[in-house]
Write a structure and sequence with these properties.
Elements: E1 2-7, H1 13-22, E2 28-35, H2 41-48, E3 53-55, H3 58-62, H4 65-73, E4 77-80, H5 89-94, E5 99-103, H6 118-126, E6 131-138, E7 148-155, H7 162-187
Helix pairs in contact: 1-7, 6-7
Bound molecules: 5-O-phosphono-beta-D-ribofuranosylamine.
5-O-phosphono-beta-D-ribofuranosylamine (GRF) is lined by residues 8, 10-15, 81-82, 102-104, 116-117, 173.
Length: 190
């Protein structure tokens, strides 16, 4: 069985769509959900699917408990789904091409530190973009700069509110993230 570890800091709608997608899969499973926020909505979602959860406070993160834990569990893929902390260099070295993230814009546009959630959609709207979308990419040591695995565009109009843009982007995220995860794990040897 291939193991996925989901790392999320927030509400976890992407995490839930992944949990749902793999809930009946016989070869791939979500084996843990990890968050740095004690009351993250993602924990309630994970419970519904009986997936073990781990909360790491700042102290635990500083003491490298996250990396030690992942070194021990050895997930086949570490999936960031709205995880707002930077991934340490040692984790990146230990899991080459095994840590992926989803970003709510067409990278390299609108990426980097502080570019998450509605911050992205607000600037996309302000700049009068006619298209936005999602990017799924490997994680490297710079925010949103890792190799791009997949992108999908969506048209937006000047009448779309930030909330409308967010909904369009979220619909793409929920449709494609699990599919790409499944594809990555299926082509991987072993
Ligand atoms: C998503 O928009 C994703 O692109 C970004 O963080 C957000 C997480 O949303 N990385 P949710 O917690 O999955 O609802």
């Amino acid at each position: 069985m291939k193991k996925i570890a989901i790392l999320a800091s927030g509400g976890g709608s992407n995490a839930e769509s992944i949990l749902k997608h793999f809930s009946l899969n016989k070869t791939i499973s979500v084996s843990m959900v990890i968050s740095n926020k004690k009351n993250a909505g993602v924990f309630d979602r994970a419970e519904k699917y009986n997936v073990p959860c781990l909360w790491l406070n700042d102290d635990a993160l500083k003491k490298k408990i996250l990396s030690n834990y992942l070194f021990k569990v050895k997930p086949d893929l570490i999936v960031l789904a709205g995880f707002l902390l930077k991934i340490s260099s040692e984790l990146i070295r230990e899991f080459p091409r095994k840590i992926i993230n989803i970003h709510p814009s067409l990278l390299p546009s609108y990426g980097g530190k502080g570019m998450f959630g509605d911050n992205v959609h607000k600037i996309v709207k302000k700049n009068g973009e006619t298209q936005t979308g999602i990017t799924i990419h490997y994680v490297n040591e710079e925010y949103d700069k890792g190799e791009i695995i997949f992108q999908k565009k969506v048209n937006i109009s000047k009448n779309d509110s930030v909330n409308d843009i967010s909904k369009k982007v979220q619909a793409l995220e929920h449709l494609y993230y699990s599919r790409i995860i499944e594809k990555l794990l299926s082509i991987e040897k072993g």
